[in-house]
Every structure is written in C-alpha cells, then in structure tokens.
Design brief:
The chain has 207 residues and is mainly α. It has one domain. Helix 2 packs across helix 5. The radius of gyration is 17 Å and the shape is globular.
Length: 207
C-alpha cells in the first residue's frame, strides 16, 4: 500500500512482472516463475483469508484488514482510508462470489499487483488493462494441459473479475493516479478535469 506512512509497502511481497510471448525455453520458464510470483498467497496468507471469511460484519472485517495491512492512520490519512476501502471492498466482493480460500488469496494478490503497477511502474490505464488480460489468460480457463495448476478461475469467475475491476479500479484510474502522484491541493484542483476524463475511460470499454 505504498504511500502509507505506517503500512507495508505496496507490492512488497509480490514483485512486479512483465509478461511477454517468447519461444525460448529459458524465457518461458522465467515467465512461468513470474506468473507463480503473481499467484503467491503471501499478500494475505491462507490463515488470514480463513480468519476474514469467518466474519460477516463489514466493520469487523475492515478492522481486521486494517490490522493485517498495518494501516494505523486511516482516520487522519485519506490515502490510507482509500486503500483500505479498496482492499476491503475487493475482499467482500470475492467473499460474495463464494471463492475458495486459494481463489480469494489469488484475487487479493491480483488487486495488490494492479496498484503496485500503477504506483511504482506508473503503468497507464491501457497498459494495466493489457497486463490484466495477460495474467487472466494464465490463471483463468485454459484448454491447454500445460501449467494446469495455475488455472484456478473458470470462465464465469474470470469474466466476473474483469467486470469488477472495470467498475472499481479502472473506472476510477485517474483518481488513483492523482492520489499517488499529486499533493492534496492538486487533487482538489484536478477534480473537474478528472470528471471530464471519465468519459474517455468509459469509451475505452467500447473500443
């Protein structure tokens, strides 16, 4: 959750990767290892996921998530509060999808990586969408028997994940960019421009 004054560093447990099509075996092996890093459950380990899944009260889940992520300033730091809401909302959505513990863990890692790509790599909206497509091609449904253990989401689940990210992170991508790259005064001044840019983002889904 980079940018948090007291929280853990966003993307610290799952390093960023670049997926690219290659024909060289060594490069394919490297790509496979990179994908495994994306699917690492270390962002929210299984015991923490299990703990959260037992709860049904959003306030309790939010407090546990805050403790897991070590956000200590959510009442005075707008950025921490927004990031906490991002992860809590994502977890509640995954819980509503009846994802397994492993699926919840992979989904939360995916959320973390998308923010890491935005904040640390300054990945554009278009590049972020492309990155998501490449990752989902590996962890979603696949008729190939190769790396079958990576295909943990079926067609319905994969489509639902993409649809969720469209209306959450991607729809408000400029807002997150402002949050990470601008000071508070610039964010306020830029809100009108942000609203105008929303039309361009909406048009993207119809290309």
């Amino acid at each position: 959750m980079a940018g948090s004054s007291s929280g853990m560093t966003l993307g610290s447990v799952t390093p960023a990767v670049t997926l690219a099509g290659t024909t060289d075996d060594s490069e394919k092996n490297a790509e496979f290892q990179e994908i495994e890093q994306i699917l690492s459950p270390d962002f929210l380990p299984a015991d923490q996921i299990t703990n959260l899944l037992r709860e049904h009260n959003v306030d309790i889940i939010q407090e546990k998530m805050r403790a897991f992520l070590n956000f200590q300033n959510i009442h005075i730091c707008l950025k921490d509060a927004i990031l906490l809401d991002y992860y809590v909302s994502g977890f509640f959505w995954a819980k509503g999808m009846d994802f397994t513990i492993d699926q919840c863990s992979k989904f939360m890692t995916l959320l973390d990586m998308l923010l890491h790509n935005l904040q640390t790599l300054h990945m554009s909206l278009e590049d972020s969408i492309k990155w998501l497509g490449e990752v989902m091609a590996e962890i979603g449904p696949n008729h190939s028997q190769k790396n079958e253990e990576l295909h943990i989401f079926d067609v319905r689940e994969s489509k639902a994940i993409i649809d969720y990210l469209k209306i959450s992170l991607f729809q408000h991508y400029r807002l997150y960019e402002f949050m990470f790259y601008s000071n508070r005064e610039e964010i306020v001044i830029g809100m009108e421009s942000l609203e105008r840019s929303q039309l361009s983002i909406n048009l993207l889904w119809h290309l």
